[in-house]
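User: I've been trying to design a sequence by hand for this structure and keep getting stuck. Would you show me what you'd pick, starting by listing the structure so we're on the same page?

Assistant: Good idea, let's start from the same input. This is the structure you sent:
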């Protein structure tokens, strides 16, 4: 996939509507994690350096097509201004001010944008306060397009959605990819199209149903597939193992069997847990023990991969030259069930010099931060759903409109 990027655009003196992903967690009215905001700074700083008038738009949370004061982007604007000022100072450029508006379309918004001053970055209000955003309504897209001369997509986490701000408006203005989208596509393409082998895929999380297409696409490409998390229970059930009270998608047992056969016919080594950390309750655990996978008791709930499994997965990862990870190995939010997930994160970090490593967004990003190894991973995706759909081989509408003819 070859994208038109902002390096090819004449930005000087142009108004640039830029779709960013500021869907960040809030706590007590403040930004709790600014990772996604930081990820957009290089693109914004570059556009300012090139003399563009930057207008940013994003969604935040799920306001259900109505104004929700707790989901306004005001806290984001404060963090964005601080980060931008620091970046501009580091580059020896002029001061910058973030102007947060009370809406994202309409005559008042257009008036402010038309009068935008040098050094100002305009941040529009939450796009999802309007029903037209998620409906990809043509009139809403046209209202956004009236604000700018050029459109830039730098919100990889939303490119799998055909919304007005991610797909609709890109048909109405010259459209380009920002640096973040460009980097995401390059990293994921390296995994699915041009991996240095052995290619090792690590898949975890709760449900196999969320990742069927991903596994179908990646199993034939990979040399090794390592399965963890609750989804491993469904695979083990397909092999005839008892899984106690562990989460199992009964309707996907046959699918798991089919994927096991696909791995066998592809010559791909698919590894499942050989031991588990089990408990009697995830909410109030009174018993926590390690048991072999074939000895899971009737009352046991598998909450993490065991030490033996973690060691075997670590050995496979050590030999990888390309590795992709999505999904935790257990209930890593609880410390007594985090060891398997941390072990995988540390194993990926340990091959930084010898392998290209990609973490595919979602809870895996939190796991990488939890393990403190984010600087030893080559690429940590900002888009969970988007990254999974990309590696599954889907055509993403927010990328399709950025492709070169």
């Amino acid at each position: 996939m070859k994208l038109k990027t902002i390096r090819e655009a004449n930005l000087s003196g142009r108004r640039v509507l830029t779709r960013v992903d500021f869907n960040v967690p809030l706590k007590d009215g403040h930004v709790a994690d600014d990772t996604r905001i930081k990820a957009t700074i290089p693109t914004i700083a570059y556009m300012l350096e090139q003399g563009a008038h930057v207008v940013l738009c994003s969604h935040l949370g799920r306001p259900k097509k109505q104004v929700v004061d707790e989901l306004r982007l005001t806290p984001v604007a404060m963090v964005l201004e601080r980060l931008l000022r620091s970046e501009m100072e580091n580059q020896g450029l002029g001061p910058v001010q973030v102007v947060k508006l009370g809406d994202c379309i309409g005559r008042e918004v257009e008036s402010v944008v038309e009068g935008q001053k040098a050094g100002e970055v305009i941040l529009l209000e939450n796009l999802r306060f309007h029903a037209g955003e998620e409906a990809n309504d043509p009139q809403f897209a046209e209202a956004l397009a009236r604000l700018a001369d050029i459109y830039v997509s730098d919100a990889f986490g939303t490119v799998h959605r055909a919304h007005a701000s991610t797909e609709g408006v890109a048909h109405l203005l010259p459209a380009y990819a920002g640096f973040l989208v460009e980097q995401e596509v390059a990293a994921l393409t390296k995994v699915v199209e041009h991996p240095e082998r052995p290619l090792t895929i690590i898949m975890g999380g709760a449900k196999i149903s969320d990742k069927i297409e991903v596994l179908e696409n990646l199993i034939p490409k990979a040399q090794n597939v390592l399965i963890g998390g609750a989804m491993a229970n469904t695979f083990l059930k397909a092999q005839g193992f008892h899984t106690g009270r562990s989460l199992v998608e009964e309707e996907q047992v046959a699918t798991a069997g089919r994927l096991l056969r696909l791995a066998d016919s592809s010559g791909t080594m698919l590894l499942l847990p050989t031991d588990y950390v089990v408990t009697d309750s995830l909410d109030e655990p009174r018993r926590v023990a390690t048991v072999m996978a074939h000895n899971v008791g009737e009352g046991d709930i598998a909450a993490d991969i065991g030490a033996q499994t973690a060691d075997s997965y670590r050995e496979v990862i050590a030999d990888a030259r390309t590795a992709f990870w999505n999904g935790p190995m257990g209930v890593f939010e609880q410390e007594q069930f985090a060891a398997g997930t941390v072990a995988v994160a540390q194993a990926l970090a340990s091959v930084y010099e010898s392998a290209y490593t990609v973490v595919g967004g979602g809870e895996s990003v939190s796991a990488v931060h939890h393990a403190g190894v984010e600087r030893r991973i080559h690429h940590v995706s900002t888009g969970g759903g988007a990254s999974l759909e990309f590696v599954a081989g889907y055509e993403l509408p927010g990328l399709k409109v950025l492709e070169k003819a």
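That's my pick for every position. To get oriented when you compare it with your attempt: The chain has a mean pLDDT of 95. The domain at 195-391 is CATH 3.40.50.1260 (Rossmann fold).
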